[in-house]
Design a protein that fits this description.
The protein is α+β, with helices and mostly antiparallel strands and about 100 residues long. Strands 1, 2, 3, 4, 5 and 6 form a six-stranded antiparallel sheet that branches. Strand 4 and strand 5 form a beta hairpin.
Length: about 100
């Protein structure tokens, strides 16, 4: 996500360890200061949200991420789903009507 808001929570903390934005390529970097479960949240301002958890373990040359934890995606709201469904239906009828008008 380009220019998405990022918030990082350290292990056992409700206060953000770091806040910022991704670059135009969707990249963001931070340097953890302790091992444990880190929570990373991204939000692009258009109702898209991504929440990640990474368990960082201590190694000889710094920290590294253990196997990724579950990724959580936010579901769309019911009104958004209804509008999307209606848009698809109207779009299909529009294509069918245009095809019929062109061939008939």
């Amino acid at each position: 996500m380009s220019y998405a808001d990022v918030e990082i929570l350290g292990p056992g903390s409700d206060t953000p360890f770091q806040k910022g934005r991704t670059d135009r390529n969707g990249m963001f970097m931070f340097r953890p200061d302790q091992k444990g479960l880190w929570q990373i949240g991204l939000q692009d301002g258009m109702a898209h949200r991504l929440a990640l958890e990474r368990e960082l373990t201590d190694v000889k040359n710094g920290y590294h991420a253990a196997k990724p934890a579950e990724t959580v995606f936010r579901k769309t709201s019911r009104p958004q789903g209804i509008i999307t469904g209606m848009s698809i239906i109207f779009g299909l009828f529009g294509i069918a009507y245009a095809w019929k008008a062109r061939s008939g």
